[in-house]
Amino acid sequence: MSDRIKKELNNINMIPASTASTPEEEYQALLRSLDVYMPLADRRPIQLAYEYAAKCHAPQKRASGEPYIVHPLAVAGIVSTLKLDTPSIVAAILHDTVEDTTATLEEIEQLFGPEVKDLVDGLTKISKIKFRSNEEKLAENFRKMIIAMAKDLRVILIKLCDRLHNMRTMDNLSVEKRKRIAQETLDIYAPLANRLGIYGIKSELEDLCLRILKFEIYQEIRRKISSKRSQRLTYINDIKEVLEGELKKYGFTDTQVYGRPKHFFSIYKKMMERHLEFEDIHDLFAFRIIVPTIKDCYEALGVVHAMWKPMPGRFKDYIAMPKANLYQSLHTTVIRPNGDTAEIQIRTKEMHETCEYGVAAHWSYKEKGKAAGESDANKFSWLRQIMQWQSELKDPDEFLEALKVDLFDEEIFVFTPRGDVLSLPQSATALDFAFAVHSDIGIKCIGVKVNGQMSPIKKHLKSGDIVEVLTSTHQRPSKDWLNFVVTSKARSKIRSFLRTEQREKSRKLGRDLLMQELEKRRMSIDDIERSQVETQKFVKAARESQFDDALIAIGYGRLNAPELLNRVYPMPEPKETMQEQIHRQGLDAPAKPEKPSKSNFSSILVSGYDDVLVTIGKCCLPLPGEPILGFITRGRGVTVHRSTCPRALDLDPARKIQVEWSKVQLENTSMHRCGISLRTQEKPGVLAEVTTLLSNNGVNVHKAEVKIENKVTGIFEFEIGVKSLQHLEMVISRLESLPSVLEVQRTNMTKNRRPRRSSR
Ligand code: MN
Q: Is 607 in contact with 656 (CB distance < 8 Å)?
């Protein structure tokens, strides 16, 4: 690492980075760090781990040319800043041995015991997870990681330290690789660190990501923060002095006040979210008051509020209501006489430790006497919730969606009329609250009283609201509900209710269809239903597990009643072709067909046949080559959606049918429409630059809309024609490399689309 980069990194480091560069120096730095919090612990396992890992990694070098062992030692160093125990330090030193060298788990168990072996095993498994694959894989991988995590949280803590060291030392990797790793970090590891409450690692990861993904903006923020540096330091010191003086006056003695600039990424996020310019962001600094007891926290708050006026709506009491990740603190923003605002956090020393180390604080060395046999999942309700979902939600897409909501949303706290507190994601509605109280209450919810006022079930809730749910026994969930609920619990309960209802309808329809066919042969469905031998014949022929499932399959149109009957009671009739079956099912003869465009017809294979009527989902406009899903629709053949389309997720999985792009279509070079949206810097010539790039890359522009967002950024919405998914991806990455383009996103086309939260 060059000195310049080291210096620059030190500007943003929260977690101290060692300045060591040889393995021995790195090892000594680790020992010094261990001496601080576990001076008396046995060092022999650590020495042994160092020797063993050094031998295993001997032939390897890092991209920088350093001996590989520097990396695991540095990771162990970061783990030691979280004050984790000896097995964690040993596992950190060994974390890459099984993955990258000839070392085996058996050997590690022999040398270091089963506890270290399990940790290394978990780390090896996580390192094999590739997050940039298709959504289904991603969900599966997340599931694996969650399971590894729930068994022993130390695995993910060590993994986060590993990622942090990799992010600090990526300068010798190619630009693409750096961007890919940074994006993965921003999508997965930083939110995870946040959820686990390890703010030190979270903030540094985010700032490092910003530096790699949006270098220009990163530089700009850095330049602006460091300019007028002395002026800003005076500003921080002024406030610090006033606070300290005032607290002393009221008899606070053992109290520390800190002031620091906020992280670059949080400034960047604020600029983007509120569409502000750097100059418009006033609270660039955060102040922190650390006091001995909880009582002192509230008293110190009183002192602050007596001196400066609190900003309405900005006071938060996370002491009375800790966040799910155990974070506790009082937050307030005050207005100073000159009109400036300052954000102030007040907490005790113990709370401060939990804030910095999050769940790691529970694993720290001093907590040796932890309850035996209690898995980490039992300690953290959040983790317990996820474990429950991963066993309940069989559909990987649904699981991923649930996890995203839970991982990325801040919480609000809402009260029941009896004073119980429930925590919900920030954008939760009254209906989400009803489902959080109980599924039955959610299903029967007709409205709510928020703070005594009648409100619709769609109402967004705020922290502190007191919510009373009104129910009616006649109420039933409607499809529309899915458009506004945000919690996974509400969503999955509504979906399962609608599916059950839909299945019952289909079962009745299927039974009617089968009955008609049976009557043609002078047979009675009642007779068949009475005989288990007969129903079993149908079950077997339909390849379902129950008679009802066979009826449902007929009702949905997945099975054809006469065909099934023929299989159960064969008649000497010429066999039908697939084409004829489809004819009779009415799949290709819609009552009122939506005219299929020529290029869509026979472009997609449905379960291997290319002669089924296919409609492309207008909501998501999939491109050839993209992962797709098909759904059987009555009278309109098969509708095809992108596999990530939110609408497709709402449809009944029982109607899912396997579809794939045909070879013809994949080789076809005709143009397909899709939508993209760009956020750009607002400068003359940007539109020209973008359209030139589009036309130079063979893209047709059908429609362009320009919106000026504010003085600094603008938004372009394009409807374009591209040849394929690869073509679109290539164009998006070229657009993103334009310096004036900040963000490019693929958009859906329908106007009434449900806003989908993205992880960025
Ligand atoms: Mn590693």
A: no
**Structural contact between residues 261 and 232, judged by C-beta atoms closer than 8 angstroms:** yes
DSSP letters, 182-221, are HHHIIIIIHHHHHHTT-HHHHHHHHHHHHHHHSHHHHHHH
Final residue of a structural domain among 541, 568, 595: 568
Task: Tell me which residue range forms the domain holding 95.
Answer: 3-213
Q: How many CB atoms are located within 10 Å of the residue 427 CB? A: 18
Cβ partners under 8 Å of residue 438, min gap 6: none
pLDDT in tens, 49-99: 999 999 999 988 888 888 999 999 999 999 998 888 899 999 999 999 998
Q: Are residues 58 and 145 in the same domain?
A: yes
Hey, how many other C-beta atoms are within 10 angstroms of the C-beta on 307? 15
Q: Which two tokens stand for residue 501?
A: 């209802």
User: pTM for the complete prediction?
Assistant: 0.56
Could you tell me the two tokens for 260?
Answer: 């620091």
pLDDT tens-digit map of 573-609: 555 555 555 555 555 444 433 343 434 444 666 665 5
Q: What is the CATH number of the domain that holds 676?
A: 3.30.70.260
* pLDDT at position 137 over 80: no
Report pLDDT digits (tens) over 520-542: 888 888 888 888 888 888 888 88
* Ligand 1 centroid from CA 145, angstroms: 16
Under 8 Å between Cβ of 411 and 324: yes
Spacing, Cα 120 to ligand 1 middle (Å) = 11
Distances (CA, A) of 125 to 97, 100, 122, 146, 387: 12, 12, 5, 12, 18
Please say if 100 is a catalytic residue.
Answer: yes
Catalytic residue among 99, 136, 610, 682: 99
Q: How many separate domains does the chain show?
A: 6
Higher pLDDT, 30 or 199: 30
Q: Average pLDDT for residues 335-359, to the nearest whole number?
A: 81
Whole-angstrom distance, CA of residue 445 vs CA of residue 432: 10
Q: Which of 24, 25, 100, 207 is catalytic?
A: 100
Give catalytic status of residue 99 as yes or no. Answer: yes
